[in-house]
Design goal:
15 helices; 3 domains; mainly alpha; Rhomboid-like fold; globular; 3 strands; three-stranded antiparallel sheet
């Protein structure tokens, strides 16, 4: 994917040649940790690509390119790239297939065990109903979907893409790969600071205390005047799986929001979505609520609208990934409705959509929107709210009181 010099100014940053660092003399490559590796010749570079089983080669440089380029854009490395991708993708698919098989067998064994234990006292239909309503089976299905079925489906999809690579059909993949590589190279310090707050509160949750009752969105306590729970619940999590999934989503979605809309909107949307999502949960569900999901869904809704209003900033394939993430979240919510607060998800998503639609206008520019002074004021206020929320949550968990 190349562009003439006169066309560079009309392209978004990720698509321009200067979106990546200047090439160095000779040959070499840059890994995912932004570390350069020299190669003695073009043949040595191609061999490094061929042996790259972990997809660690992010960018390459040669004497023929002014800037670094993707290995997919290096015609001489096409066969080597396909070879390395084939080994890794097939290995990933085998691992995903075995994991899915074992997880399915374990869940099936548990279901059969429970069913056989219940049959002497109930009918087959009643036994199946009992198992279907079991929280253990529901949680098992949720884990099977997230850690078994989805990775297997993704690996199988990559196998299909690999066949297209073998036919030379890589042009359609380059925009998405270029965008994701460019996004990886961008800095997102405020997203990392927010992640730090979540980690600190998460570490405090390891102390011997009931952190959810102390600082979660406990509905009776909230309606009795403990309004601060609407701020603190989003920094707590129910378990390690809950924390890990939200942390991964926070780092990716947060960076994407911060890079394109800048840090004030990152924090303002998170607070607004958490508040609206928490309020929806308080009105519709009785169980306590914890987790950053409301704010994360706000970011997702914000990005869906923001990137539709600024279509030239993001390739269509990358926008489709956000939509796929939304559909996947909805599916997980349906399967895991006993454990997932769909009200906070829906409220947060709606808040992010409304925010983006009201604050931003449609634009055909390839430049990212500038931050206004009012945005900085709102962002600073949101930052203060988050800091105070973390302090309150910490005090409550430690039992110091508030």
């Amino acid at each position: 994917m190349t562009f003439s010099p006169e066309a560079q100014g009309s392209l978004p940053e990720w698509a321009r040649g200067d979106s990546f660092p200047k090439s160095r003399p000779g040959w070499g490559w840059l890994d995912l940790k932004n570390r350069p590796h020299e190669a003695s010749s073009e043949e040595a570079l191609i061999n490094a690509i061929r042996e790259d089983k972990a997809a660690d080669v992010a960018l390459v440089w040669t004497p023929d390119h002014e800037f670094m380029v993707l290995p997919e854009e290096l015609e001489a490395a096409a066969d080597a790239l396909i070879s390395s991708r084939e080994v890794r993708i097939k290995a990933d698919h085998r691992v995903a297939r075995v994991r899915l098989l074992w997880m399915s067998l374990l869940l099936a064994a548990y279901v059969i065990y429970r069913l056989l234990g219940a049959l002497p006292d109930v009918s087959l239909w009643e036994g199946l109903q009992m198992i279907a309503s079991s929280s253990v089976v529901g949680f098992g299905l949720l884990v099977l979907l997230i850690f078994g079925l989805i990775p297997w489906y993704q690996s199988r999809k990559r196998l299909g893409e690999l066949q297209g690579w073998g036919r030379g059909d890589t042009a359609a993949l380059v925009p998405l790969l270029k965008f994701e590589t460019w996004l990886d190279l961008q800095k997102a310090p405020v997203t990392k600071c927010l992640m730090g707050l979540v980690v600190v509160v998460g570490l405090l949750q390891l102390l011997p205390s009931d952190s959810i009752i102390a600082a979660g969105l406990v509905k009776p306590s909230y309606f009795q005047g403990e309004w601060w729970r609407l701020l603190t619940y989003s920094l707590l999590h129910g378990n390690l799986i809950h924390f890990t999934m939200n942390a991964l989503a926070l780092l990716y979605l947060g960076k994407r929001v911060e890079v394109f809309a800048k840090w004030p909107h990152l924090l303002t949307v998170f607070i607004f979505a958490s508040l609206l999502g928490g309020e929806c949960s308080a009105r519709l569900l009785d169980a306590p609520t914890v987790g950053a999901s409301g704010g994360l869904m706000g970011w997702l809704g914000f990005l869906l609208v923001f990137e539709s209003l600024h279509q030239r900033l993001v390739p269509q394939s990358a926008r489709r990934l956000l939509l796929a993430g939304l559909l996947l979240t909805a599916l997980i919510g349906v399967i895991g409705y006993r454990f997932i607060d769909n009200a906070v998800h829906a409220g947060g998503l709606f808040a992010g959509i409304i925010y983006a639609a009201l604050v931003f206008i449609k634009s055909s520019s390839v430049d990212r929107p500038r931050v206004m002074w009012v945005d900085r004021v709102a962002g600073g206020f949101a930052a203060a709210v988050l800091l105070v929320s973390a302090w309150i949550a910490g005090m409550r968990i430690l039992g110091i009181g508030f």
